[in-house]
């Protein structure tokens, strides 16, 4: 059930993680890119500011929240990378719309 | 069967029962709090979290006063719970508004508020009807469809779950006994002598308080009381957390201390069905977005429904049994708002053995045909 994928997938898609270019395999999730980038934390929680990294990788825990292409609070594990995607840490709560 | 004696039994471990039990234990009564368990309907876990005064008690000035009184008691209760338990209840009372989405709604609201003030009499009631332009300065991002708002300084909000936890922790911290998984099925009643069975133990006390929410309807007649309450379903939508943008709660939208927006206030007769209904969810979302268009950008992360505990006239019921003095009921759909009066005013009355005359209009005898005639 949890066997590793047999085929080797070259890192062909270039994305920007926290502003730094990084190549990841096609079909990888933005959360995988965050992990591969080796950041100490990819978000800070909105209430206590605790540092977090992606955890469940299946859309349940919300610990991978990131700002993707300018949209805040996206679940990075549910988003497939595209060339040029900008993936940035989600620090604290997002700002709601025009109320800024 | 083993028998244990107490000074008071409280049936129901939700917000109403826990607030009363906390108040009784604080008065020095050795109190046992019996809680059904996770199979119960648990309205307290689904509460929206308003500490709300405006729009309560139209045509019922005693309810208006009781609600206002509770909003006044809240700061002291919240401070005391924080000191005793270290748990904050997230109370903020910056005032609140009801948003009107048309001129017709605004006119109707204005008439209702004016009537509330007339009925308040010497007690007074401060409010303002504020037109769209001025309201938009008060509330950032208020939509162009908003005709105006009604505002009072008395309204606020709190975290229902933190309040429930603080009341329970406060109660047991004072020496009160909490018994979970204790659905009360059998009991005996005599004047100032009550016994109920729970988990194979017979608990006796000279006082019993029925605060079992919807369960009171069945329970009350066994103790010479009446509590004709029925479920009214409410649905709630919750958004992701955002930075604090709403300076005050509204009747249907509030921002929690942690930043989530809660959207709610639907009312349905759905029996005991705790399901959700896309049509109602859509209406809630639509009204929220008409009120604050920027809400449309937010993701919804949770939704649920819960059952309000409603008397036929929508007002609370408080009673002491005439047949079995010492048996009381407390029934309402505002467990958060009324926590202040339940802990600080009602519990002392129950401890003293008599409800004050101001409580008389809340009796369930108002539903008796002969009484009504």
From TrEMBL, chain A:
GO terms for molecular function: iron-sulfur cluster binding; oxidoreductase activity. This is Sarcosine oxidase subunit alpha. Signal peptide: none annotated. Gene3D superfamilies: 2Fe-2S iron-sulphur cluster binding domain, sarcosine oxidase, alpha subunit, N-terminal domain. The keyword Oxidoreductase applies. It comes from the Bacteria. InterPro entries: 2Fe-2S-bd_N (IPR042204), 2Fe-2S_ferredoxin-like_sf (IPR036010). Keywords: Oxidoreductase. It holds the Pfam family Fer2_4.
UniProtKB/TrEMBL annotation, chain B:
Keywords: Oxidoreductase. Coiled coil: none annotated. The keyword Cell membrane does not apply. Residues 7-347 form the FAD dependent oxidoreductase domain. Gene3D superfamilies: D-Amino Acid Oxidase, subunit A, domain 2, FAD/NAD(P)-binding domain. One of its GO terms (cellular component) is cytoplasm. It comes from the Bacteria. GO terms for molecular function: oxidoreductase activity. The keyword Chaperone does not apply. This is FAD-dependent oxidoreductase. The lineage of its organism: Bacteria, Pseudomonadati, Pseudomonadota, Alphaproteobacteria, Acetobacterales.
């Amino acid at each position: 059930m949890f066997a590793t994928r047999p085929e080797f997938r070259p890192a062909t898609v270039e994305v920007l993680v926290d502003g730094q270019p990084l190549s990841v395999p096609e079909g990888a999730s933005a959360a995988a890119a965050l992990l591969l980038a080796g950041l100490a934390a990819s978000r800070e929680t909105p209430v206590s500011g605790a540092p977090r990294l992606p955890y469940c990788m299946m859309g349940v825990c919300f610990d991978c929240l990131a700002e993707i292409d300018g949209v805040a609070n996206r679940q990075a594990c549910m988003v497939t990378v595209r060339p040029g995607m900008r993936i940035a840490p989600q620090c604290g709560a997002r700002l709601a719309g025009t109320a800024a | 069967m083993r028998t244990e004696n107490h000074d008071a039994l409280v049936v129901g471990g939700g917000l109403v029962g826990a607030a009363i039990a906390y108040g009784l234990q604080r008065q020095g009564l050795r109190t046992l709090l019996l809680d059904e368990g996770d199979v119960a309907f648990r309205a307290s876990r689904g509460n929206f979290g308003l500490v709300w005064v405006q729009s309560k008690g139209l045509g019922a000035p005693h309810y208006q006063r009781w609600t206002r009184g509770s909003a006044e008691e809240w700061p002291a209760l919240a401070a005391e719970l924080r000191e005793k338990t270290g748990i904050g209840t997230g109370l903020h009372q910056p005032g609140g508004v009801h948003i009107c989405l048309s001129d017709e709604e605004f006119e109707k609201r204005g008439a209702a508020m004016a009537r509330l003030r007339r009925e308040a009499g010497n007690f007074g009631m401060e409010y303002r009807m504020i037109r769209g332009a001025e309201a938009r300065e008060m509330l950032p991002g208020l939509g162009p469809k908003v005709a105006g708002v009604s505002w009072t300084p008395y309204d606020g909000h709190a975290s229902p779950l933190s309040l429930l936890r603080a009341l329970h922790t406060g109660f047991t911290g004072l020496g009160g006994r909490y018994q979970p998984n204790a659905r009360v099925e059998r009991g005996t009643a005599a004047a100032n002598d009550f016994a109920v069975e729970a988990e194979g133990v017979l608990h006796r006390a000279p006082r019993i308080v029925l605060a079992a929410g919807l369960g009171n309807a069945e329970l009350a007649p066994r103790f010479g009381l009446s509590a004709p309450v029925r479920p009214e379903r409410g649905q709630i939508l919750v958004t992701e957390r955002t930075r604090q943008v709403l300076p005050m709660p509204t009747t249907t939208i509030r921002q929690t201390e942690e930043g989530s927006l809660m959207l709610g206030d639907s009312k349905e007769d759905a029996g005991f069905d705790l399901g959700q209904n896309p049509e109602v969810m859509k209406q809630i979302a639509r009204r929220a977005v008409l009120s604050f268009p920027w809400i449309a950008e937010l993701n919804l992360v949770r939704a649920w429904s819960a059952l309000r505990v409603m008397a036929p006239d929508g007002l609370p019921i408080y009673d002491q049994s005439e047949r079995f003095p010492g048996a009381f009921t407390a029934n309402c759909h505002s467990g958060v708002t009324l926590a202040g009066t339940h802990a600080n005013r009602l519990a002392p009355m129950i401890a003293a053995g008599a409800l004050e005359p101001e409580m008389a209009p809340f009796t369930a005898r108002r539903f008796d045909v002969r009484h009504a005639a």
